[in-house]
Write a structure and sequence with these properties.
Layout: H1 2-22, E1 40-41, H2 44-53, H3 56-70, H4 73-97, H5 103-122, E2 130-131, H6 135-153
Parallel strand pairs: 1-2
Length: 155
């Protein structure tokens, strides 16, 4: 009799185990989390480098590309307006003092504003992302800048 009861208990245990595997709605069933693939974005370092080498408006264009990638339209418009006004302000400042020694410090300030205010506000300080190559924007920036440099040298 004892063997029969043990056998019956074993069958019930197997049935309950089978139900757990067959019934995914069971409370003990744990779903696997599907992790999102992080977006490919240009890093803060790339934004800073382009702001220093070319100007703040180039760094802003790269930040706007990042914001477009994550679908942040409001942030893109604000960065565009800031970069245009800031670049015009730099041009007037440098022309009014008749020296270009303020250009690099002003571009550093522009890069800091882009990274510390706009990046942190719209992308977040702790965003996880894959670094995107900076080669394509560098080629575009050089292509855009060359005619201006040539115009300055030959006029």
């Amino acid at each position: 009799m004892r063997t029969f009861l043990n056998y019956k208990a074993e069958i019930k245990e197997r049935e309950s185990l089978n139900q757990e595997f067959e019934n995914p709605d069971n409370e003990e069933f744990e779903e696997n989390e599907i992790t999102e693939i992080p977006p490919q974005l240009y890093s803060k370092r790339v934004i800073t480098a382009f702001s220093l080498i070319f100007s703040t408006i180039f760094g802003a264009a790269i930040l706007m590309s990042n914001l477009k990638k994550i679908g942040e339209k409001k942030g893109r418009i604000q960065v565009l307006i800031f970069s245009i006004l800031y670049t015009v302000g730099i041009i007037f400042t440098v022309n009014s003092v008749s020296t270009s020694k303020f250009t690099i410090p002003l571009n550093i300030l522009g890069a800091v504003i882009l990274n510390e205010y706009f990046w942190n506000r719209y992308l977040g300080k702790n965003i996880e992302f894959e670094k995107k190559s900076w080669v394509k924007p560098a080629l575009i920036s050089v292509t855009v800048t060359i005619p201006f440099v040539l115009a300055l040298l030959y006029t």
